Amino acid sequence: MVKVAAIDCGSNSTRLLIAEARAGELFPLFKTHKVTKTSEGLELSSEISKDAKNRLIKVLREYLKRINTENVDQIFITGTAVFRDANNSEEVIEEIRKKLDLEIQVISGQEEGYLTSLGVLSSRAINKDFFIVDIGGRSTELIYDSENRTNVHSLDLGVVSLTERISNINPMSEADRNEGDNLIQQSLNLEIDTKNISMIGVSGTFTSIASIYLEQKTYNEEEIHLTTLNNSWIQNLSSELNQMTEAQIISSYPSLDPKRAKTLSTGVLIVCNIMKKFKFQELKVSKSDILEGLILKNY
Fold it and tell me: Which of 29, 77, 161, 247 has the least CB density, counted as fewest CB within 10 Å?
């Protein structure tokens, strides 16, 4: 039995899992996330901003304190779309290496999807006939099983980049909604046979939606895990969110991380378009994702 920490430096949030691992099994000890908005402003500048970098370093420093108190044997830390896309990612990685002695490994969208599938399938309640959707800040991974092979399509679109492309202001106008739909549909210009398979949603957008559905007062990941959401309810939620200000979203949903309010409308818009494109009437939400997969790949 070894004690391992996995950190995912995403485009919107930075997350930590500490777990004990043994022979392909995980025993979680601690899990948390912080919305760092590391890709904020990247659409215009093509760089990770100084403020975003500082937010990321602050959170990583906090995580290291927890990791050190847990006497962790090994740390795995990945960087996803924000580090793939930013012109100054190498500089940021080098600064983090010097300040915190952490080595961020930048992974491709394909690898991100593969690791996510490992994490999701670690839950015995999910079978191999899957269509996993992982919506991040700058990319969305579609992961599915075909002929006993895991396939990954990484889309160049996420909640932060879509929000910055169409509008930074809630409520969302009809023109912004139409523009968002068009951008998403352009990214979804691909054909996947989704007959007789189940849609599984992972990441902050899906867990936030499930928390709203369950009317949680305080965010509870264990209760969220494997919650089933139907398409009509999600469509109604999307319509409601589009009419709300950011402040109204925060006040209406007490379990929601306030920093997610700015991108929730666009996140739900992506979900609606994916369900429409691939004709899903419902989906299940998984709490397990790339963090679990990162550990399981190595143990």
Answer: 247
- Predicted TM-score (pTM) of this structure: 0.94
Residues of the chain by 3-state class (helix, strand, coil), percent to 5: 45, 25, 30
* C-alpha to C-alpha distance for 37 and 252, rounded to whole angstroms: 22
Query: What ranges do the domains of the chain cover?
Result: 2-109+290-298, 125-285
- How far, in Å, CA of 4 to CA of 6, rounded? 7
Domain 125-285 homologous superfamily, CATH:
Exopolyphosphatase. Domain 2 (3.30.420.150)
Calpha distance 95→86 (Å, rounded): 15
- Residue 232 near residue 238 (C-beta atoms within 8 A): no
**Cβ atoms of 188 and 140 closer than 8 Å:** no
Give 161-194 pLDDT, tens digit per residue.
Answer: 999 999 778 999 999 999 999 999 999 999 999 9
